[in-house]
């Protein structure tokens, strides 16, 4: 759910786009008002369920977010969690020319010139997505493609019910997968220098 209203007071919002089968831009996105979270990937609308994420998803997200907040204190990088709009332009930064707007569970941005009052414009350095029932294709295929193409240096995918983490690291424009990390492993980021994540602490007390 969006947390800002960039439209003039006298301009009406559209509660729904006319059709979900068109091609939509960030300019269109700014005119919508949904109860659920909405993302656009290459012009296509993706709506999440209106219900809040499951408790395990939120606990894992909170565990990672806390670790990143503590580690990044006093450092140039900043960490944000959803809802937080990340716009991924291809040709132009004009609203009408941006066709991918996502809300990662967690993202780290080290180039502060990418931050503005509406979120981030350009690729974050690190993105963490926690899978939820029904969104696996979006995270594993659709977002994977735009994150790779946009230059996101690291893409972490967490499977909360299997207690695993897979890291994709960008190398010459292509993602290279890590081994599958799980409880007992310590994962070290290559783009957020010095940050290490102990998965024992991430996956603790989830029952």
Instruction: Encode the helix/strand succession as letters.
Output: HEEHEEEEEEEHEEEEEH
Largest sheet: 6 strands, mixed
**What percent of the residues sit in helical stretches (DSSP H or I)?**
10-25%
Shape: globular
How do the strands of the widest beta sheet line up side by side?
A: 3-6-9-10-11-12
How much of the residues is beta strand, in percent?
A: 25-35%
- Give the structural class: alpha+beta
Structure description:
It is a single chain. Helix 3 (136-150) links the parallel strand 9 (126-130) and strand 10 (154-159). The chain is α+β, with helices and mostly antiparallel strands and 207 residues long. It has helices at residues 26-29, 55-72, 136-150, 199-202, and strands spanning 38-41, 44-47, 78-81, 86-87, 101-102, 106-109, 115-116, 119-121, 126-130, 154-159, 164-171, 174-182, 186-188, 196-198. The strands form four sheets. It has a six-stranded mixed beta sheet, with helices on both faces. The protein has a four-stranded mixed beta sheet with strand order 5-4-8-7, with no helix packed on it. The chain starts with 25 loop residues before the first helix and ends in a 5-residue tail after the last helix. The chain has four helices and 14 strands.
């Amino acid at each position: 759910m969006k947390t800002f209203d960039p439209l003039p007071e006298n301009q009406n919002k559209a509660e729904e786009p006319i059709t979900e089968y068109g091609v939509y831009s960030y300019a269109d996105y700014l005119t919508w008002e949904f109860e659920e979270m909405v993302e656009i990937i290459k012009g296509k609308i993706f709506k999440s369920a209106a219900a809040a994420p499951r408790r395990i998803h939120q606990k894992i997200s909170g565990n990672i977010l806390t670790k990143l907040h503590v580690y990044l204190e006093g450092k140039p990088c900043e960490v944000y969690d959803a809802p937080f709009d990340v716009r991924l332009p291809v040709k132009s930064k004009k609203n009408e020319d941006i066709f991918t707007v996502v809300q990662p569970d967690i993202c780290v941005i080290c180039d502060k010139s990418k931050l503005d009052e509406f979120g981030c414009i350009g690729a974050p350095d690190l993105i963490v997505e926690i899978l939820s029932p029904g969104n696996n294709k979006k995270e594993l295929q659709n977002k994977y493609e735009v994150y790779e193409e946009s230059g996101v240096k690291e893409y972490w995918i967490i499977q909360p019910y299997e207690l695993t983490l897979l890291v994709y690291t960008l190398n010459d424009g292509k993602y290279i997968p890590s081994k599958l990390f799980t409880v007992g492993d310590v994962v070290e980021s290559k783009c957020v220098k010095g940050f290490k994540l102990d998965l024992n602490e991430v996956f603790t007390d989830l029952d």
